[in-house]
Amino acid sequence: MESQTNKCPFCTIEDGFVVLMTETAFAIKDGYPVSKGHTLVVPRKHVANLFELARHEQLALWDLVERVRERLVEEHQPDGFNIGLNDGLAAGQTVPHVHVHVIPRYNGDVPDPRGGIRWVVPAKAPYWE
Ligand code: 5GP
Ligand code: ZN
């Protein structure tokens, strides 16, 4: 476990990236943001899967997602959000320490935003066509 956390970018995050902290979780600026304000909400416990967390830790994570969202609304006035997580390698997870992406979205940031997270499988995303 020690070696896993030593190599984990979230367990070794620099203070400059941390935007909010609670007893069980913290929020950090994504190092490679897909939009202005892209933030990750991370439990202090190094586990890969959301459901390895106790229920109170899951709820604390969600509380922090709400606080992060409110903060981003004030800071950047986005027009929408994509909020969610990649659960497992097959689903695109690249860092094996649970994190919820809070991605502010802005009118016009992509030509046609319809479908949002459905674009994880591009060929199936546009069901309206
Ligand atoms: P995943 O693909 O696991 O859902 O997302 C991993 C996220 O972590 C990506 O959005 C990526 O930009 C971010 N990330 C990866 N390494 C670092 C890092 O060293 N520092 C920060 N702040 N974010 C990172
Ligand atoms: Zn970690």
Describe the structure.
This protein has 129 residues and is an alpha+beta fold. The chain has one domain (4-124): HIT-like (HIT family, subunit A). The chain is 22% helix and 19% strand. The protein has 2 helices and 5 strands; from the N terminus they run αβββαββ. A 5-stranded antiparallel beta sheet has the order 1-2-3-5-4, with helices on one face. Bound molecules: guanosine-5'-monophosphate and zinc ion (ZN). Guanosine-5'-monophosphate binds at residues 9, 17, 28-32, 86, 92-95. Residues 5, 8, 10-11, 46, 97 line the site of zinc ion.
Low-confidence stretches: none
Q: What sequence of helices (H) and strands (E) makes up the elements?
A: HEEEHEE
Dominant shape: globular
Total number of distinct structural domains: 1
Q: CATH topology, anyone?
A: HIT family, subunit A
Distance between the termini: 48 Å
Note the total helix count.
2
- How many extended strands? 5
Oligomeric state, counting identical vs distinct chains: single chain
Mean pLDDT: 96
CATH architecture: 2-Layer Sandwich
Bound ions, cofactors and other small molecules, one mention each: guanosine-5'-monophosphate, zinc ion
Q: Give the full name of the CATH homologous superfamily.
A: HIT-like
Please tag this protein with its features.
129 residues, HIT family, subunit A, globular, binds guanosine-5'-monophosphate, binds zinc ion
